[in-house]
Please model this.
Amino acid sequence: MKAQNWIAKAAHYHASDVHFSAGERPKCRIDGMLRDLSEERLSASDCETVVKALLGSDKRLSVKLMREKSVDFAKTIEGIRCRINLYFQRRSLAAAIRLLPRQVPDLKKLGLPPVAERFSTINNGLVLVCGPTGSGKSTTLAAMLNQINLSQALHLITLEDPVEYLYPDGKALLHQREIGTDVRDYASGLRDALREDPDVLLIGEMRDSETVKTALVAAETGHLVFSTLHTPTAEGAIDRMLSLFSGENQSRQMRQVLSMNLRAVLWQQLLPKANARGRVCASEILIVTPAIQNLIREGQTQQLYNYMMTEKKFGSQTMEADLIRLCKTGRITQQTALRSARNKKRFKEALEKMSEKN
Model:
């Protein structure tokens, strides 16, 4: 079977990912679990054929794959937008393909708290969407950006590696720049973007201190900046950014700048539904208030979790609070919630209180 047929088959099963590797059956990920697409195992030559089909006639990608032993790109296959990673393992080629929704999802349908819908209306500052790989960060960011695209006559610039979602025509002027194709790297692309009259910037990922520093400059000078970080908690995003800066003076300065320009952190994970196929989004939200600004400025990030618990009126919420909500509504099982909780002892206590009330 041809690569495009496997991808179409996986899409029919509502899979999120497809994997090809020598000696293994072709697999897809459905509701977070890997499943076989066929009983037949792929040979090294089968995988080579798959990779050639995915590369097509793009010699630049072929050269990069052979030189760097892996390559990332995106393309539309059988009407399905795919983010593709080709790589070597045990001296043979392999492929990991993320299947993206055919259209940018409506933000209201992602299952996020209502406060997340307000992030697109912020005038300036930095908004972070965090979570593990495969948690839907790119989808959430795309939905937020498209909300602006469809409703406001602004200039939006994205820096992506690779470009994933293709946006519909809207009121905004939207330019998507791909790392390695349209621009050398995130840091230089972000510096260039500041000279291109943007209103809103989307940075696919903040990987180094230079990108973080330039993103904060952009936020400080009146732009709305969206980006992602791979962190295990909402407050962990703040620690991660600050860890990129060494030296007491530099660290103190960055805490000050971050406290003044960070607007919100959304941390999310996708969990299996209780009684149906599919997954549901559980989220933790940190809304930056004057009290939060002071904690960041003073380097007391270990206290942020307690503030998320007490500042619910501003829209902040802990992961445990959202897991309780999902349990109450029957969206996820208590076992799933407990497995996904940050503080399992505190979550068990909350579950017991919920049981007593019922």
The radius of gyration is 21 Å.
